[in-house]
TrEMBL record:
Domain called Methylamine utilisation protein MauE: residue spans: 3-135
Cited NCBIfam families: BT_3928_fam
Claim: Membrane is one of the keywords in the record: yes
Descriptive protein name: Uncharacterized membrane protein YphA, DoxX/SURF4 family
Membrane topology: Multi-pass membrane protein
Presence of the UniProt keyword Transmembrane in the record: yes
Amino acid sequence: MKHKLLWIARFLVGITFIFSGLVKANDPLGLSYKMQEFFVALHMPFLNPLATGLSILLILVETVSGVAILLGYQARIFALILLLFIVLFTFLTGFAWFTGKVQECGCFGDCIPISDAATFWKDVVLLGLIVFLYLHRKEIHPLWKQVSGPLTWFAALSVIALQAYVLRHLPIVDCLPYAVGKNIWQEMQPPPGSVPDQYETTLVYEKNGVEKKFTENDFPWQDTSWHFVRRETRLVKKGNAIPLIQDFSLKTLQGEDVTQQVLRDSTPVFLFVVNHPSKAHTGWDSAIHNLQTFTQHHRVLLFGVTSSSHINDFLSQHHLNFPFLIADVTVLKTMARTDPCLVLLKQGLVMGKWSYLDIPDTAVVSRTLSE
């Protein structure tokens, strides 16, 4: 009986950790941004510069531990690692749920968002399973003595390679609101059939030194002896009319809002996103210069987008002759997982998205625009 329970626990824990690790390996930057939220909430912002490196390491260890416990490789070591992991995860998900300071822990990345409560109870179940595995770790033997080790380390190399690829290019599966095929303008609107928040307004008036609250329906309008003091508004019923995209806006360097112009115009628009000009990767100059020339001879617009107002040196250094717009830094981190990144829009629809290493040539651009 114990042998069967060990196998069930190994299977459930191993598959969960492998799946969770691979989902996050598709977008390690997404996990690093979530880690920064936790660092701030826990009053440890000094760890923010380490977030990307810690994210890559956590994903690697999480996935490899799942593979190792499933295959029975070095069970004594990896059972301990899994125990340390799940204790940390349970604390963090509990912190997120009970304090409300972090929305969604990101345990399954952005592709599978689950509530903080569900995540916490999932970790409690895993904690029980892993404690059982840890107590019986000496009874866990390799599934295949000759290949369990090589398979575990092959999995480690595969996770490293996957993360290296998506960090230089883009996530293989884009689950964010700015993914190819999504319409940014539509995502900025409340979902169809949603209900807005309902508020009640209370008017506070004073008469003969006594304050009294009235609603707009029961206020004695004929009695002019009441004197207005203040207006109070309270939330009566929480709605669900929350757009997936809430903070997207584009402004010129002079402060003019051109969001609707960019998103509603029928003319295709390229957005060259350079979130942090001083930290942006290189190796894209030739491709962007070719695109710059292409847009000058075709009915296509090209804008740069950045969160920095200090862009002039960057423009001069890279010989860029197209205008730059200003957007929120968090919005750009969500829209573009590489810095720089090229996005093609037509009436708000994301028609294409490319890393700075994959900026298409004019033939591909022409073909994409004709689709």
